[in-house]
Amino acid sequence: MISLDLLPGRRAVRTFAVCGVLSLAACSQRETVDAPALPVADAGQTVRFGTPSPMVTFDPHVADTGPQFSTYLTLVYDGLTSINPDSLSEALPGLATSWTWPDEHTIDLTLRRGVRFIDGERFDAHVAKANLDRLMELKGPRINTVASMYAAEVLDPFTLRLHLHFPDPRLLPNLGGSPGLMVSPAAFDNEDLDLNPVGTGPWRYDRARSVLGEVLHFVPNPDYFDPAFRDAPAVDVHELTNNRARLNALISGQIDIAVVGPTEAAPARDRGFAVSQRANRWFGLTILDRSGDLVPEMGDPRVRQALGFAVDRQAIADAVYFGYARPTSQPMRPGHIGHDPELEGFFSYDPGRARALLDEAGIDTFAFTVPVTASSIPQYEAVQAYLRRVGIDMRIEVIENGSIAALARSRDYPVNTIGYPNFDPDSRHPAIWSVTAGFNPFGYEDERLERLAAEAIESLDADLRHRNYREYFNIVVKDVLTLVYLQIDDLVVYDANKLTGVRVGRFIDPLMRDIRLRSLPVAAAAR
Amino acid sequence: MLKLLAARIVGLVPLLLIVSFLTFLMLHLVPGDIRDIVLGVDATPEQYEELGDKLGLDDPFVIQYGRWLFKAVQGDLGTSAYNSQTVVDAVLDTLPVTLSLTFGGMLVGVLIGVPAGVWAGLHRGSLVDRAAVLGATVGQALPNFWIAIILVIPFALWWQLLPATGFTPPTESVVEWLRSVALASVALGTSASAALARQTRGAVIDVLATDYIRTARAKGLPERTVTFRHALKNAAVPIVTTIGFQVNGLLGGALIVEQVFGLNGFGSLAIEAVRTQNIPIMQGVVMMGTLVIVAVNIAVDVAYSYVNPRMRPA
Q: Which of A263, A266, A270, A216 is nearest to A244 (CA)?
């Protein structure tokens, strides 16, 4: 037995020091994983990407289709299809090279031959069916995007038939998200599939060298079927949740490319980094109390229009978003289904007109409260100031992160500030504007919207869909069921001397598969 | 000494039980729902319900806590709500980062604060003393995250002497480990050094005014012996206590400074867990944080009894 009070001074100090170092070293023995050693590329041959999005799961069938999908899953998995990020409604070939519609309730997919998973398993129609069966059994967060599909049938080893409840023009593009990614069936029962992906993708995850929450390493898959990826660089994904830390890492040369906010984009640009941008989401107010149950004034469309005319969109775009946003009046952006060029400037900055609309409605002044998360306070404070000038008192209530969606489902507030990515109206209608929508807690019903959406959702006629949704959004905008102020950009800054092929995808991050090193021959981006 | 350790360890059990219960309770009172984060904005009510059943979110609070406690006493703190990463793995991946910063900050604090305080105490009223007091006031007034932001600019961005982000474990490279925590340690250690300098100065001044020091000088002992053998050893008692307080403070400060340096430590783990309503991880962070703080307090008690024999148990 050792009693410290019997130890001479130096020994005691030494013992403390040794114990301290040993405990620190013991803590530093991070989880080691039995995994084959993969080649290690040096930093010059590696795309080092800084993202705010942590890796959550490598199991695509329980993953969301967001940055999780585009940053991590698309590196290691291939999908049956992929999505054209410029249109969102167009499916491009993936592991399915082509498809036909024998009738409105059936799709036949022709599958790619000669594809193997990294565990050596072959990809064929039986594997694809097993994946879709697993997807439908697990019912992950994106299952509603493929809800039209009720069965998959193997016609021959490389032809898969999908049976649908109803004609669904969105199914093929939606299979380009996480639901359509193919996992080796031998790995279905792996308990660690969510941390150890087994796909066919162009990269392999180097789990042994990676630390979740810090940096994840991906090395090129030498057996990948597409020769365009033969010279693909290694990829390191650095999880850096703080915007300023990502910018610092970029400036100091620790990473080559980073997702940033508008505040960081300008200094990065000034230091010679290139900026890639895409208007992926909109900023505004989702009107929940469309009938005026909670705040009677909100039931009058003229009052809701006043909320639109009172705000100087361009000033907010310049001051809060540093120019990385554009004024608009509609949820969809140019090139997307339902976009109407004539709606673009429906709301101009006209406080006189806003005041006149309020007078016409017999309202001198009124107040309402909006829930706002801390990160969105500056832009809503700007809106608040403009509304105050015409006599509208918008009170901001700061709420916890993660609670905004629950509040949008509640009847506690007349307006919500939840932000929506620019997805297709097929999924937005049942979420926001339908009488049964979760974000329509007061049950406001507009029969015109229900009819137009019902016709469009189940139609394979692209013209009809576009026509219907254009009319649909004319109602949404002019009746101000949702008030859109700005289309805001997702931003990626990067070292253009080292990287090429950088484009922001449909989420906040770049299209990882397209990025190449300038020092190597530029391969054509495969998809 | 062993009795002291045994008593503290036995006392740890009810403390952990109370902390775990209160943490669980508070996490359930926090607004927000993990289902909104997992399922996204397009979730149907059916999906919402199914996920709630799967995660047991609709069970009564007591049942949920009992289920967690039953596993916890068997050493199983559960897994992340999002994947199969165990809470223990998540904590052990991040703990070295935060401990490195905490001990690094303490080292900076002790190396700067104690000599400065001793010097100021021995030369009370001198220019050096006044400079030390002023420095300590400024050091305590500056927030450590602000110092961190300022330090990054010249050392990481302009001269690129030290990394702006990231952590290298000491098992990989001791030099790189030191480089990876250097700036954060200085940022953290500034306020600790200020507090230690003030405390040390006061303790030295108090001890120098005592009768036994006067007696030692009257006996004709050399000033060096008076200072180092008698004055400093007795002044160490309040200094050790302050170090204990500072370690706990540094642990909290590290959580914020980690963000500035993009370090995947306890703070980053906690913040991400709060953001994503990942209750098992949050619970694990709080429990492990409690253990670390209790361990530090026990170490302080042990050190205290070493420097002050009167504090040793009979």
A: A263
Q: What is the pLDDT of residues B79-91, one digit of tens each?
A: 888 888 899 999 9
Count CB-CB contacts under 10 A for residue B75: 7
User: Which tokens hold the place of A22?
Assistant: 């040993």
Within A189-285, residue ranges assigned H as helices are 243-251, 262-270
Spatial distance between the Cα atoms of A109 and A441, rounded to a whole number of angstroms: 40
pLDDT given for residue B314 in this prediction? 56
Helix axes B266-275, B232-260, angle to 10 degrees: 40
Question: Which tens digit of pLDDT belongs to each residue from A346-356?
Answer: 999 999 999 99
Grouping H, G, I as helix, E, B as strand and the rest as coil, residue A221 is coil
A211 touches chain B (CB under 8 A): yes
Pair type for strands A482-494 and A257-260: antiparallel
A202-217 tens-digit pLDDT: 999 999 999 888 999 9
Whose tokens are 């996204």? That residue is B40
Q: Pull the structure tokens for residue A335.
A: 């090139």
d(CA B265, CA A30): 13
Residues 6+ apart with CB under 8 A from A385: none
Q: How far, in Å, CA of B275 to CA of B147, rounded?
A: 26
Q: Distance (Å, rounded) from C-alpha A48 to C-alpha A428?
A: 35
pTM of the model: 0.85
Q: Which of B29, B41, B256 to mutate to test the interface with A (most CBs of A within 10 A)?
A: B41
CB pairs under 8 A between A and B: 175
β-partners of residue A396 are A370
Nearest-angstrom CA–CA distance, B74 and B182:
38
For the record, the structure tokens of B95 come out as: 């703990």
Distance, CA of B313 to CA of A290 (rounded, Å):
72
Interface mutation vs chain A, best among B2, B42, B152, most A CBs within 10 Å: B42
Q: Decide if A145 contacts A179 (C-beta within 8 A).
A: yes
> Which candidate from A59, A214, A253 shows the least CB-CB separation from B264?
A214
Quote the CA–CA distance of A259 and A246 in Å, as a whole number.
8
| DSSP-assigned letter for residue A491 | E
Q: Is the pLDDT of residue A4 over 90?
A: no
How open is the CA angle B151-B157-B159, to the nearest 5 degrees? 90
How far is C-alpha A163 from the chain's CA centre? 28
> What mean pLDDT comes out for the span A295-321?
96
Assess contact for A285 and A298: CB atoms under 8 A.
no
Q: What ipTM was predicted for this assembly?
A: 0.81
